[in-house]
Amino acid sequence: MSKRRINKQQSSRIAKQHQHYRHSHENNADKTLCEGLVIKRYSRHAHIEDAEGQAIHCAIRPNLDSLVAGDRVIWQLEGPGQGIVLSVYPRQTVLGRPDAHGHVKAIAANISQMMIVIAPAPPISWLLLDSYLVMAEYLNIQPFIILNKTDLDTGGDNRQFLLQHYEPLGYPLLFTHIKSQELNTLQKSLRNQISVFVGQSGVGKSSLIRYLLPHEASRIQTGEISAQSQLGCHTTSNSHLYHLPSGGDLIDSPGVREFSLWSMPQATIAAGFREFKPYVAHCKFRNCSHFNTPNCAVIQAVKTHQISLKRYENYVKMINNTNLG
Which of 117, 173, 250, 258 fits a 20 to 30 Å CA distance from 190? Predict the structure, then answer.
């Protein structure tokens, strides 16, 4: 069943109502209103954490459609351990992905870091990795590239590719497996940040999170790789926010096999490729698409090996997918 659409007048009324709740709480005008943090969303309910760190099971008002882990909200107590979410604070950032109908669905809110996990198995999708990096650039958050299960990286080809094509661009790289010393470096990079773990299913996100959160290990499932498809099996259906013992928060997102940027303009995608920046001002045309256009400085840089051919090919795939969308 399709969702009921609201008109501009209804949307304005809802926005004013949300603002009223926030102002009432901030000015202490209504002592029944409390601030909380969304830990996890369950259909029309959410697990909310109050200011004292206590868990509250809250219903969600119908006009709060896209509530996700990381959202800061105003809620009202309705009984012991129960309440209702009335309003959500404006988000600093939001990570989303297209649903089955092509509409962007939020995954996590107010994140400051994106931890992109890849692994030799299932096979690395470099297009998916570059798509995540473009999104991180768009959101202006810090991305980390984590090559997990390095013990399966026979010959070190994936490690070498990352060192050759991604480290020179300034992307922090971590090489981990479950007994790796690099896990200590991973812990330090998460301190005092709100980080989201993203990547294909089966790359070991849940295993890494179990290591980072030993006190939550029994609640975090570990996925397996399908022997036939070599694709990961999904172990989480909704994003979940965890508090790290060393400080900071971590959000575990659903595994995704395809990450589309169909809703992004071509210029925004191009801006997500750091290596293009020194060349775009030298293109003949100000609106150069850097694809099949004459006198393009970016294309020339690819030809002279100043820009990675593989990365450029992924850029072309992204803008073609956008045009098709």
Answer: 258
